[in-house]
Amino acid sequence: MTMPLSQGPLAAPDTRGRLGAYARLAKLDVWDYYLAFPLAWALAGFSPSALVVLLVFGLGTVCVVAGSVAFDDVTGYRDGSDAANYGPDAPARRLARKPLLTGELSEAEAIRFGWAAAGAGAALWLLAVLIAPFAPLWTVLLAALCLASSVQYSWGLKISYRGWQEVFLAGFGTGLVLVGVGLSTGGLTGFGAVQAVLFGLGPLLFGVYSNTRDAEGDAAVGRPTVAAIVSAQANRGFIAGLTAAEIALVVTAAGLGPAPWWFALAMLPAMGVRVAQLRRGVGLGDLLAARLLGLRAHRVTTATLVAVNLILVVGAGS
Fold it and tell me: What transmembrane ranges does the database entry give (predicted)?
């Protein structure tokens, strides 16, 4: 029997729709953690051999993060925090980021996707270790810690439900840079460590504004973010303290630490965006705009760090 011609065109949009739902489940539009790999490559002196390793490790990271956020969505769906934070009055574009809430994917489908993505990520990370020119033990152990903590972020041990969310947000990004550099060079300089920490502070300093916006829903389900467990005034002080700590790290690294003297000057644009973020979010209370400024600050910071390393590499070779 011949298949009706109308079934072909009808199937394609449905397939595309499901692929789009899985892409939104994986949060592929939020790629800021993946900027760790251009930075790690810059810290490795833009070595061609390092690029191959970092591409494999980076692709694995996309899978690991996809699995982690899929599990996070399942947990948020089960405990009702996503329903509270992404209620029916949320803009359609924002609500669409939660395909479990919209009914596009089932809970079982999301769980299967989470395990498949995490498994693929683990396999790619292992491949990166096997083909890397260097694989010191600390690098392998740190990669294992990043993998375990990412999967267990809101699944299994649920570390983000035990007061570790802010630590994870900063630590995971820092760890990605450190592992990438370790696999590429076998070691780490003091200035490289400073840059890894600055990178890790980026996701934390836009995450805390999201946590502030979601504080009520998180508190209702027992997810103890700083914003959910302290007063509004104390939370504002916490965010201001993180911002000041980042700026202090830049200034100290340039003045007393391993960075070149001009490092703080190079970082002025990024720190300017960071101060604008603090004013917008803490001073004016515009949390969404502050989060967007945090994304920009992180991207400007990473681009500046890559440029600084390029200048150092060119200067060393001249």
Answer: 39-71, 167-185, 191-209, 237-254, 297-317
